[in-house]
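Consider this:
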Amino acid sequence: MMRCEPCLLAVCGSRSNEGINSVSNPPTSDAIEIRLTPTQKEHYFRRTGMILHSVSVPPAQLKRFSSVAAKAGSESLPVSRSAVRQLLEPEPSGERGGGPFVVEVVLTPRQKEQIGRATGHCFASLLMGPHDFPVTYHETWDDATPLRVGRTIVIKPAGKPHEASAADLVVELPVGDGSRRGVFGTGRHPTTRLALVLLEEHVRPGDRVLDLGTGSGILAVAAARLGAGEVLALDIEAAAVAVAQKTVSLNGLAGAVEVVRGGIESAAPPYEVVAANIFPNVLTELAPDLAATVRHGGVFVTSGSVAARAEEVIGAVCAAGFELEERRSQGEWVGMVFRRP
C-alpha cells in the first residue's frame, strides 16, 4: 500500500499484527498533546481505518488554528492542513474535485478545558485530515503461520511447513532478516484478504495484470499463481520493491512477474486486471489514469477503504468511466470490483 503525504503535526499511534497506523515523530516537549479516549479512537478507526492514540500540536500552531476557527465562527478546531482548508472552503468531501476528507472528533469536557486554556477559545470538537499524517504499517512477519484465503490460495511464510493439496496455489513470503518492517502485505490484514479473494474470482489464464502499490508483492505473485500470463508490480517505495523482488524470486516467478519502482505512469497498458490495495485519497486522484490503464471489458480491483469512505471511491472511479460490479466487506473494510465497459 502507498504512503500518504507528510504532515504538520505529530500523531502517535500503534497497532500490532494487522493494523494500519498513523505515526509520526514523537511530540516535542513543549507541544500540547490531546490524548484520545477509547470511544474517540474507535470513531476515528471506523472513519479512516487507522489507529490514533493522541494528537500533539505546538502551542503557536494551535493558536493559529484556533484563530482561524474563531474567525470562521466554527465550534470545531482544525488540527491539520486539510482540516483548515475544509473549514475555510467547505465542499462535499465524497465527490471528486470536492474538499478534502476530514474527520470530526467530539471533545470530552476535560479536553475542552485543556484546549480552552491553550487557545483562549471554546471548541466542541477537533477536525483532522487523516491524509495529512504520515503513515506506516506494522504487521507481524516472522511468527506468521500458513493461511488459507479464498478457495485455493495459501499464504505461507518461507520455511513454515504446509501440506499442500494438488489444488492449492501457494504464495511464499520471505521472513527472517527484519527488512520487511514497514512493508505491507502478509495476508493477515482484511484488505489483503479481500483483494486476494477478488483476484481469485477475476484473473483468467493469460491475463495481463497490474498490481499498483504492490507492497510485499503478495497480490502480484497470487495473480501469477492464478494463471496470469504477465504481471507488473509497481510501488513508489524502495523498501517495498526490494521485498517484492524477494517474494517473486522465492516463488520462482521472475519470468512472469516484473517488479518496478514507480507509479501508474510506469505501467504499460492495457491490462485485463488492475489491483490496488491503496488509500481512498490516492484512488480518487488516480481514477482517470486507471481508466486509461484497464482494457475495455477489464476489471479494477481495490480493497484499501473502510466502509465510511467507500462511496467516495465509488463516486470517483465511476466518474472516470467504470461501473461498480461487486462490493464485499470484511469487518470495517470494503473490497470492490469495477468493470470498464
In short: The first helix runs from residue 38 to 48. The mean pLDDT is 85. The chain is about 30% helix and 25% strand. The CA atoms of residues 66 and 202 lie 50 Å apart.
